[in-house]
């Protein structure tokens, strides 16, 4: 498959780039994408949740009423879970939610996501560009020229400080380097802008 290369003014440069069928034309594997997204979201969790059990709650250990003769159930401590302010039974404890996935499966997932985007005509190729200084106005002008709306993922070949600073404060824009591309970002966008030099990096990573 071939895609035309545009400049940041939205004009066709007359050049075309041939995309690898192994990466941009693969048969989507939905389960692989599901697992990769699940791992990404799990890895974002801090896992610092914690509630106190009855042995951790501060308070008196004095028996609150006599054992027999009250007509009610026995009660030995205000720290018991059935009392307000008592400990919680089987409450959350700090834990690590992350889990491992096979490297090959993650590659299949990213290739599947890219293939879906290309199939739906949601990928545009942009020639290499930079800004002389961080200017959000110039970044918004570029998006307008390219007729991009909604959530946008810009994939650049390497970190460009001026480009990153220009687009980072736009709510619906995410900027990622080609080597850090992940399935979640690909599926959570309406449009992908691929800088021309990013294509070779992605193909080398996913077709090894």
TrEMBL record:
GO terms for cellular component: ribonucleoprotein complex; ribosome. GO terms for molecular function: rRNA binding; structural constituent of ribosome. GO terms for biological process: translation. InterPro entries: Ribosomal_uL4 (IPR002136), Ribosomal_uL4-like (IPR013005), Ribosomal_uL4_dom_sf (IPR023574). Keywords: Ribonucleoprotein, Ribosomal protein, RNA-binding, rRNA-binding. Residues 44-73 are annotated as: Disordered. It comes from the Bacteria. HAMAP family: Ribosomal_uL4_B (MF_01328_B). One of the primary rRNA binding proteins, this protein initially binds near the 5'-end of the 23S rRNA. It is important during the early stages of 50S assembly. It makes multiple contacts with different domains of the 23S rRNA in the assembled 50S subunit and ribosome. Forms part of the polypeptide exit tunnel. Belongs to the universal ribosomal protein uL4 family. PANTHER family: 50S RIBOSOMAL PROTEIN L4 (PTHR10746), LARGE RIBOSOMAL SUBUNIT PROTEIN UL4M (PTHR10746:SF6). Part of the 50S ribosomal subunit. This is Large ribosomal subunit protein uL4.
